[in-house]
Amino acid sequence: MSATTPSDMLSEINEINLSYLLLAQRLLGEDRTDGMFRMGISEPLADVLTQLTAAQAVRLAASSQLLCRFRFDEHAILSALAEKGKAAQIHSAMLMADQSADQTG
C-alpha cells in the first residue's frame, strides 16, 4: 500500500467537489424540492447551484476544501442509517425531515 501524497488528496477532494456539484445540479434540475430535501440545502443555495456554469463549477470544485459535509450531526440519525431494514430507513428519513424543517424554519 503506497502513501497518499498531499497532491493526491487535493486531487481526490477536487473530484469529490465536482461530483457533488454535478449531482446537485442534476437533482435540482429533475425535482427542485426533492433535490433540496435530499441534499439538505436552502432555496438560496439551490438557486446558486442551478445557475453555475460548467466553468464556474469546475473552478469551484478546485477548492482545497470539501464543498459537501455530513448532514448527520446527530447520533440518532447516523445510527438509524446504519441499521438494516425498512423500519430503520423510515426512522432515519423522519429524523432527517425533522432536521431539515428545523434548519429552514
From TrEMBL:
The keyword Cytoplasm applies. Keywords: Activator, Bacterial flagellum biogenesis, Cell projection, Cilium, Cytoplasm, Disulfide bond, DNA-binding, Flagellum, Transcription, Transcription regulation. Its main location: cytoplasm. This is Flagellar transcriptional regulator FlhD. InterPro entries: Flagellar_FlhD, FlhD_sf. It is found in: Cytoplasm. GO terms for cellular component: cytoplasm. The C-terminal region contains a putative helix-turn-helix (HTH) motif, suggesting that this region may bind DNA. Functions in complex with FlhC as a master transcriptional regulator that regulates transcription of several flagellar and non-flagellar operons by binding to their promoter region. Activates expression of class 2 flagellar genes, including fliA, which is a flagellum-specific sigma factor that turns on the class 3 genes. Also regulates genes whose products function in a variety of physiological pathways. The lineage of its organism: Bacteria, Pseudomonadati, Pseudomonadota, Betaproteobacteria, Burkholderiales. One of its GO terms (biological process) is regulation of bacterial-type flagellum assembly. It holds the Pfam family FlhD.
